Amino acid sequence: LCRVREAVVSTQSTGSIKDAWERKNVGVKMPLSHLVMLGGTAGVIGSYVTTPTDVMRVRMQASHHTKSPPLLRSFLNIFKTEGMKGVYRGAVPNAQRAAVVNGVQIPTYDVTKRNLLAAGFQDNKWTHFGSSLFAGFLGSCFSQPIDVAKTRMMNQKLLNNPNVRLYKGVMDTLLNTARHEGVPALWKGFVPTFCRLGPWNVLFFMSLEQFRLLDNFMNNRTKAVF
Question: CB atoms < 10 A from the CB of 200, how many?
């Protein structure tokens, strides 16, 4: 379930649009502001589409039952007891987190790679590896507080009074968490988050670079033929 969500929310579309833009504007790199906006927008759209699966994942992980119900039954249970609002619980922090992750990771990788190349490093797998790992680290740093708020909002269930909730919104969740548990609590789970985002960024960006090489090879081959 988590892998399906990651695949849908992935930044592949952002990389494709960036490459298409730079092919159209030969010799000109996409501005940093464009990269941030493009990555953030892609993250918001993808997160809204996949919020129901994320809600089910969080509920399954927090469940005390040893055997989780099937995916469809889990969805129907949430829908019957909490309605469509329950299915999309935490959609706003989910979108904010996705916007932050994509808006940070993609520009960070691009800028880090440019600076490494300008410093004399070769455009090879080690440069790509270092840039992508650093992008995953910064993405984890910036997104973890929102991820904590998102998880807590998705996990909370309606009390006897349907108008009463433990957390009223993202800022309320962040402020209450910091007030009662301290500011470091906003970064709870940072290590496992980085252990997930780090390898994910390495695999994604290094794969993207290989696809770029293949694309350039095919384009040059086509030009040579025609």
Answer: 17
The C-alpha angle with vertex 11 and arms to 5 and 14, in degrees rounded to 5, equals: 145
Three state DSSP letters for the chain: CHHHHHHHHCCHHHHHHHHHHHHHCCCCCCCHHHHHHHHHHHHHHHHHHHHHHHHHHHHHHHCCCCCCCCHHHHHHHHHHHHHHHHHCCCHHHHHHHHHHHHHHHHHHHHHHHHHHHHCCCCCCHHHHHHHHHHHHHHHHHHHHHHHHHHHHHHHCCCCCCCCCCCCCCHHHHHHHHHHHHCHHHHHCCHHHHHHHHHHHHHHHHHHHHHHHHHHHHHHHHHHHHC
d(C-alpha 151, C-alpha 170), whole Å: 11
Of the candidates 139, 133, 147, which has an alpha carbon nearest to the alpha carbon of residue 204? 133
pTM for the model stands at 0.67
185-224 tens-digit pLDDT: 999 999 998 998 899 889 888 988 888 788 777 776 665 5
Do the beta carbons of residue 5 and residue 50 sit within 8 Å? yes
